[in-house]
Amino acid sequence: MGAMTIICFLLCGISVAKGERSFSGQEWTFLVAGCVVFLLYLFTKEPTVAAVLATIVDALGFGPTFTRGWRSPYKDSVTSFTLNSAKYVPSLFAMGAISIATCIYPVSLIVMNAAVAVLLVVRRRVVAEGAPA
């Protein structure tokens, strides 16, 4: 097991121990969907199928983020979503093998994070102008 895997598991454990312990049904659904995608990859060894399914699950997982951004546009950081979008751009140029399996996930993260940042900016302007929600 790689060092990054161990670090991720440790961070997950600390987060659960010190942070939020109640999760919505929607969040459990995304966790199960992610595990199903992982198991599918383990059994099929099809990286393109796994990458596409993981990207779909992750994109659907942005749903609550868009909802919260619409309802409470000042709760999240525009800078954070903008930087999260931008940080995946260099990875596209650094790839040795360009394929759907290697590009779909980072491209989706660029698009989804940028979309949240735009939503937050637009909603903040609308709210600041006093327009009804």
In short:
With 133 residues, the chain is mainly α.
User: SSE order in H/E notation?
Assistant: HHHHHHH
Q: Return residue spans where pLDDT drops below 50 for at least 5 consecutive residues.
A: none
Task: State the helical fraction.
Answer: over 70%
* Helix/strand/pairing category: mainly alpha
Would you report the number of β strands? 0
Number of domains: 1
> What sort of overall outline do the alpha carbons produce when their principal axes are compared?
globular
Described by its quaternary structure, the protein is: single chain
CA-to-CA gap between the ends?
A: 49 Å
Main beta sheet? none
The amount of beta strand, in percent, is under 5%
Mean pLDDT across residues:
86
Counted by DSSP, the helix tally is 7
Radius of gyration: 17 Å
Sequence-ordered SSE layout with sheet pairings:
Layout: H1 3-18, H2 25-44, H3 47-61, H4 63-71, H5 78-86, H6 89-94, H7 100-128
